[in-house]
Amino acid sequence: MFPKRIKSQGLNYSVSSRKKSILSLMLLLSLMLLFSGCQAEQSHKNTPQASIPSETNPTTTVELENPSVEDKSILTQFVQGALDKEDYLEACDLIAKKYIYLEPQLHITPEKFYSDSKLYADQMSWAGEKSQLVYEIRKLMSKFKDGHIGWFLSSDYRISKSMTLGFVATLTTDDQVIIKKVYPYIEDKLSPNDVILEWNGISIHDEIHKLAQLAPKSTPISTLEHAVRRLSTDFSFMPLQDTYAPVTLKIKKINGTVETLTLDWTECSGYTTYDEANDDADDLPSIFLTPSLIPSTEEIPSDASYIHPSLIYYTRAVGDEMVAILHPRDFYRWSQQDLDQTMKALLKQEPTVFLIDLKDTSGGSFDQVLFLSHALNITDHFKYLRNAISEDTGEPLLTHDNFDFIESEINLKNTWDGKVIFKINPIVQSGGDFFSRWMQLKNSNNRFLFIGTPTAGAGAGTDSFVLSHSKIEISIPIRDYQIFDDDAPIEGHGVKPDLLTDMSIEVFLKSADFDLFIGTAIKDLVRSDISANREIPSLQIAQGHGIYYDASDDFTKRVMLAIRQYTTFNPRDPFDFKDNVKLKFEGYAPILLDTKQGLFKFENEKNIYSCEALSSQLWRRYVMKIINDRPIYDSFEKDVLFRKDLRRFVTQKNLELLLFYDGAVRISVDHEVFTVIDHPIEEALESGDPSNQYTTKVLVRDSYDKNEKDTRLILVGIEYQFVNNYGSTAWLKSYLYENHKLSKDLDVNEIISASLSIVAYENGLLTLNLNGYDQIFTIPLTKDEIQRIESYISTLESTGMHFTEQEEYEFLSNLQSYKLYDYDQDGEDEVIAAVNMRGGASGISEKLYFIFKYNDDRLHFTKIIPSRSAQNLNTIFE
User: Fold this and answer.
1) Measured between alpha carbons, how far is 869 from 849 in angstroms, rounded to an integer?
2) Which among 193, 196, 172 has a CA at the least distance from the CA of 181?
3) For the segment 779-824, what is each residue's pLDDT rounded down to a tens digit?
4) CA-to-CA distance for 370 and 378, rounded, in angstroms?
5) How far is CA 14 from CA 8, 63, 483, in A?
6) Cα(64)–Cα(37) distance, rounded to whole angstroms?
7) Using an 8 Å Cβ cutoff, are 775 and 864 in contact?
């Protein structure tokens, strides 16, 4: 009684595949047996006897003369068991051949996965019970922690109705399971905001983790949130409950009292469209679902409007502000025109700020991702990396592309270029994940604020496949997407909010900082546009002892943003407030901070405010410590992690060198600072996990002639390995320190952003040039590549075009990795950087090695070597 499932929830343009069913020899034999058995009842004794393979010995036959009703039942079960086994192995085969994350997830090859699965299936007794195949498919799919993995039972294999306990719960940031929605028929037992403590006598968290193991998602927080949503609703098309016995709950009411009650499972129906009338419900409880079929906790007030039911909108007046709220329920059911008309309706209300409510938003298509991006005046070209299993080789194939063909068709007349707040949660995945991350990456002028809880981190494109006999549908991610130049993939990471909060939109707007500073001298300060340096006031900081130190502009911006974005009014007994930090903005009243409690107040005022970003846990992000009477503004302050002199001689003088993090990774030498990485992944900086970790090397090389000048070359290399060695990116920069001055020498990442041009193609040799650097290199092509490129050349020539003008080659991503290696065997290491290259229509791919050599106190770019011509380098980069 649930609506038909949308078969493709991933970001893709593929049509669901349906594998053609071919009757096995066993099925044909079995059908013949059934036919002959029926004939035996109507003919004489001489009808040929039926036989089937024995379970204990496939070559042995069991004779059935005039099969009885019981014999026919056994035969039918045997045939059904054989078909169920075929479908199980078909699912395993599809996963082995097509699932893009199989090896990173299970750390085994596709061949090993399938052989293990077949051995398991061969050792099992397939009884022909439909519930057995349902159980095995569920068990199989639960091996993968992936938000796009799914299964959907056909009507013939649904062994129960859809059932509900009458409520929907969610997991809060403080790890409580709170009831968010109660359906009318149990309102006398439960209320919104009741906290569930126990489930059938065990801790509610134990029950959640048990259920979570049956359908794990891409991130832990998404796995737990999905499990909590499914606690009270079980679908006939994807059952996670084995029985529907009454459930005994221990709950804590909002008044603090604890109660125990018992709820019965009740048959239910469901609907996914906001305006959908559920005429077929037959008085059953009707569950409101997200478009991706998850019990919904969406916040849709009674005064909300829509032009399209997947684009809900309304407004709220908060003090002097008019907030326009837009809730896209998905990223696939609405059009560009629907969005334009919705934006027009909202802009008529003359808003001062937009709030995009992505809570519980389903995935969809990149089309809608770009439509909404353009509606917020983010019109940058969206480029991405795509990793998919090659149909030709069966190996992952990395390509890159853009969506110019979509962007060229976007023509929105109603757009917004002001402040935007985005609300996110762990149900937001796929298209919602990519939209959120794209907005984060484009937040260069601090227009955007993200509130809520992290997104699902599901970054794949998925397709659905229907198993031949049972018609059970399984969804498998067959491609991975990553935004070009992003430091990490969406998959397994997701988007983290600036403000972690469970507050509803209505509560957030009442407690937000729109009119927080009315009546205080600081109001104009925090409400000003702090993106322009000319508007940033000077700031001095005093910690404990009362001596004030000047703050940098970057630090001042971050403190102002922290106060602006995270502050709420928090009435407290003034005797509880003990300040240990003072902030003094020029021309404004001093701010006193109690960093132990995350509180602050203005000097000579009684009101106390709460700002979690200024607590002792996070204050270290702003002021770590004072060293030699000057403040150090970083959280992950590190000494040099690895120092090595390439010339193997000792540095005569100590060099005051610091690599630190203050929102960016920076290098400081004698108080001069340069940025190494603009937006690193903060959690990976201190990570000890090899699959999510930055590895840093700092190498200092002294001048050849120590008597003439004090010169050092400093090489900083940072490599980021992610997703169990599934990918990596790197930064490699050198700096010249001469006469107490630091200057930028060379940036390898800038070099590989240069374009490539074709010099010539002749006799199977492709010669390219790195434009701007006069680095020419030749790639010897394979027979298959020669055939492809010569076919392409012939096609071009037939239309009057030239290969060297039409074909384009470029680098697929940032620097992949680097090594120190004595390539030319002269006794001194060179710096070698690896990067991938791919051609356009002819599709020539190659890993290239960039060789950098020390000479005259500088690092010089000397040559490019294709990997197919450098076996020794291939070995060290394995």
Assistant:
1) 10
2) 193
3) 999 988 888 888 888 888 887 777 776 666 666 556 778 888 888 8
4) 9
5) 8, 49, 20
6) 9
7) yes
